[in-house]
Amino acid sequence: MAGRAARLVLLAGAAALASGSQGDREPVYRDCVLQCEEQNCSGGALNHFRSRQPIYMSLAGNPHPHGKLMWVTSWSLPPRRRKSQRPQFHGKVSLNAWFWSTVFHTRDTDLTEKMDYFCASTVILHSIYLCCVRTVGLQHPAVVSAFRALLLLMLTVHVSYLSLIRFDYGYNLVANMAIGLVNVVWWLAWCLWNQQRLPHVRKCMVVVLLLQGLSLLELLDFPPLFWVLDAHAIWHISTIPVHVLFFSFLEDDSLYLLKESEAKFKLD
Question: Based on the domain organization, do 97 and 222 belong to the same domain?
Fold first, then answer.
């Protein structure tokens, strides 16, 4: 028991130390924030900003008009650094799903089981949201905002039903299979449509197909290898390199979008 507790403390500490926010440490950004706080973040100016702020930004905890400063900071960097070291702002490395999965497989309780299941559903819905942002949001941000609200409502209803009414394993399985199918079809359709124009989307196709193939491990049942690695454990291990490949796709796609935005900026 003491050993398990120690491992959990070390894992939580590692998650707390994870950082992805170089942008908010940039001197240009810090100076801009100080100036913005003096001029825009108090009194009538702040009230004016909040009165015009979309409700989803307010509910998400964005009470200050600092958003444009991130773009100012990004464009102030040298072009080579802007391309190779894209700054992130107030970023968090999301380890929530893997964290709760680790906790649940270490200590099976009602709470840890629910957190593991709920975070898994959240990851799938978040992937659908990312797909919507990439395929629709760049041209129609209002559609993305409405779709995000729909996904949050779906997650709220799903979690509420399983928490307050009945924890139905069958329903949870069908619900996750349904949203997982939407996720797969949407990403694959977009990749197939753009594979000639954007060769890097093939990485995304490989990721989607691998994850679907690896999910078959969840349906298999065989004696654990070395009495340790059963099908479920092998599935968890196998998803790690897949996410590395997906990050590579995101990196390539971000570079493409950056070049595209730079070209439009020069034309303007």
Answer: yes
